[in-house]
Amino acid sequence: MTTIQDVAKHAGVGAATVSRVLSGNGYVKQTTRERVLRSIEELNYTPNEMARNLFHGKSGIVAVIIPELAHPFFSEMVSAIEVELCNLGYQTMVCNTFYEKNYELRYLEMLKRQRVDGIIFGAHTSLAAEMYQELRRPVIGLDRRLADTIPLVAADHVAGGRMAAEELIRSGCRNVAQFGGVDDNVSTPARHRHYVFRRVVEENGLTCHSYPKQPNYSAYNTYQEAAARLFAEHPDVDGIFGTDLYAAACLQYALSHGIRVPQDVKIVAYDGTHMTRFLDPDMTTICQPIEKLANESVRLITELIKGNEISEREIILPVRLRRGNTTTGNAAAESTEAAGTVTQLQQ
Amino acid sequence: MTTIQDVAKHAGVGAATVSRVLSGNGYVKQTTRERVLRSIEELNYTPNEMARNLFHGKSGIVAVIIPELAHPFFSEMVSAIEVELCNLGYQTMVCNTFYEKNYELRYLEMLKRQRVDGIIFGAHTSLAAEMYQELRRPVIGLDRRLADTIPLVAADHVAGGRMAAEELIRSGCRNVAQFGGVDDNVSTPARHRHYVFRRVVEENGLTCHSYPKQPNYSAYNTYQEAAARLFAEHPDVDGIFGTDLYAAACLQYALSHGIRVPQDVKIVAYDGTHMTRFLDPDMTTICQPIEKLANESVRLITELIKGNEISEREIILPVRLRRGNTTTGNAAAESTEAAGTVTQLQQ
Prior knowledge:
2 copies of one chain form a homodimer.
Chain A: H1 4-11, H2 15-23, H3 30-42, H4 49-56, E1 61-66, H5 72-87, E2 91-96, H6 101-113, E3 118-121, H7 129-134, E4 139-142, E5 152-155, H8 157-170, E6 175-179, H9 192-203, E7 207-211, H10 221-233, E8 239-243, H11 244-256, E9 266-271, E10 284-287, H12 290-305, E11 312-317, E12 320-322, E13 341-344
Parallel strand pairs in A: 1-2, 1-3, 3-4, 4-5, 5-11, 6-7, 6-8, 8-9, 9-10
Antiparallel strand pairs in A: 10-12, 11-13
């Protein structure tokens, strides 16, 4: 195997010069640079990426911390992040926290010891923000507000909650239920959609029941049990709002119990993952901009890794209403897309 | 920040001794070891994982190469692999090939330069096995036969194909269709299920139409289009076999076109991902042992990384029929689980 010394000898220079050529750091005379590059090519030398990265203090790896990779929302998100990172020459390390603080702690310990260039953090746990700052490397929050100093990328959940409420109101619902808005102990922007949802439906004279969200995709039964409990406790419910999985479980429960959708009960899902495309009737869904969330997260983290300043403190991306056949709203002119906002860093 | 030199000085030993204590390699007197460990604790020293791994020539990272992380089967699989690897102290790097040889080549180049300890390979592309051997590090094939020298972990697709065929035969089908069994140009054990399916149904006097599989979860429309094409070309089809996504798309097409399931058409899905649990009627499914596939893959790759010999050349794990309401087979005594086999390495 060819080493950097072989290249140096072949080119008639020192190994440090070859290093400078490879890293692009430090002055090397143009003719020398060309001689080194020719030697690299002739000897078919592949620099050891790790050695090169140690030289730069970089590993080329970005860690993505999420609750559960198997969950459709996170699998689509991480897949999109991986593509973006790969296109920029980075590799993606994935960490499942399973909604457990202990897992999160364990990853933080691993990441402290392991060299990763940056972290995209999207887990739903609640460690103190200081712990991320201790890592002393770039971190961004994906749908998770960690600290004022850590940039946030999220969907416009406030608009999303309002759009869901308005769609059920337009569809004539009087007595609605949502999964979320109670027992949320993590500061995720996502919970705001549930506060807004409740406020908007109540301002319009509807009754609103809020059920706790216990996301755990591995135990898919929890969704079915939650749906069964809702229909048992509120057989007169006529409108439901929840993530794709809660919405799908409610649709399944309704159809298998002779409850007609949308005639008897209307459903609005939230997330817009592909799984909603396989349901019948076609699910009305508030779609998160998964690809844009991935793109912006990757853009910010790679800028920070390169040592560049970024001016954005919060990037809030618009959501979109995709109307299917689980609701009956049909106002033609309503806005289906919120504007999205970018909050600049206070200088 | 505390360095290894600080620890050495504090304990009154050389840095090499601290290294030996940390790595567990080489002799260190028990009293010295205890003194070093006490110094590590008192100084709150966290060894730099990368430096330690360079010392061992290990990064602690395993790469998992799959076609598409967003696909429910692969997201559940990689999630399970990540948990297993994490429990053994490894971190998981994920690589999407998107069924593209170019992506696969790119990852192989990245992995050649990047230090990863081993590779779990489950992509559906067709590079020559030599390219993996060139990497000179442990590789195992997950549902993908790379070379005689590379261990394989896969589900018992032969049994799975037979079970699907028998379930449709028992349900009284006469004219069935499957997605798969044509245009398969990659040597994946999975394709055998389609050859077996066709053989078994034809031996029993049924007609069988095989449609090409074009997996691409990002373009979920392809599934709906495939379902529409099947029903247009064979309106008299009364039994369908395909992966969860093809099965779900066919169920959706049938229900939204007044075709009754299971009365008019029976459906058997293959994979058994959680998404099938959210459908109505409940989908009859051949379930792959996703967790066991993950466990065995991780067991083999970590043994190889540790330099241990493994005797297994192929581990074929049993699949299971989970009967839902999309078929009407109801034989009580049939075997629902194949035995699974382990082929030992020829010594």
